[in-house]
């Protein structure tokens, strides 16, 4: 296969959760540019619809589906909408996520539970429901967007529930990969370092926050969301056909020291 064919996603259908802002937009655009038809799922309808229109105006096929990933009935409806429109589901990017910033000694249990509900249970529900379609087809790729903060602590950001949830996503990835490998489904985790988005806006907008990130990163800069497209396509496409259960860290070297 030629290199460009390895990453080609024409005739594939990709679901991206959390596709109403931030990295989800970049992931969906990257998949669409590789030829995939994309399903944009999140809670904010207007943002999803505007983005779907934008992708369509650029020649891609895209649909917007309102879906709260913590609600199994919403996820079932999203999968049904995907099958009704496109008749297949090849790639899931489990990107929807949330964070709470509070010192561990002050974080209310209900906040902690909510973060785990979205980041872990929501990712599981989506993997399970999309996975059923992939298992029936005997092929599919699931990319869980974890975080380098699922691999290391950081202290200064005070996000105990977030780090806990991303650690869980990393190991859920391994277990789903192990259960489904012989049935044609690959499951991998992509672990970004720091990239600008709604979630990280406060940090990026503060001079001291940005300087902290730059100083702490061996490459001495934060990431450009476009730098996640290549790693995502590797895991999502046939270029990564023998990769499963793995964690691909894209962090400018943060976790190397
Ligand atoms: N930015 C970074 O530096 C960074 C680093 C490592 C990992 N990540 C991960 O990357 C993913 C995307 O985050 P981001 O940085 O792009 O932040 P973001 O702009 O805040 O995006 C989060 C997305 O998740 C969606 N979402 C939240 N709760 C949801 C729910 N219950 N159901 C469905 N969708 C939900 C939001 O859409 P609605 O509000 O419309 O539902 C939004 O589209 C997250 O998993 C995050 O943990 C980000």
How would you characterize this protein structure?
This protein is α/β, with parallel strands linked by helices and 257 residues long. It has a single domain, classed as Rossmann fold (3-Layer(aba) Sandwich). 46% of the residues lie in helices and 15% in strands. It contains nine helices and seven strands; from the N terminus they run H-E-H-E-H-E-H-E-H-E-H-E-H-H-H-E. The chain has helices at residues 3-6, 22-33, 45-57, 72-86, 109-137, 160-180, 201-205, 207-216, 229-236, and strands at 13-17, 37-42, 62-66, 91-94, 140-145, 185-192, 247-250. Strands 3-2-1-4-5-6-7 form a seven-stranded parallel beta sheet, with helices on both faces. The longest helix is centred in the middle third of the chain and has 29 residues, at 109-137. The model has no long low-confidence stretch (mean pLDDT 98).
- Helices, by number, come to 9
Q: What is the number of beta strands?
A: 7
Largest sheet: 7 strands, parallel
List low-pLDDT spans: none
Portion in beta strands: 5-15%
Mean pLDDT: 98
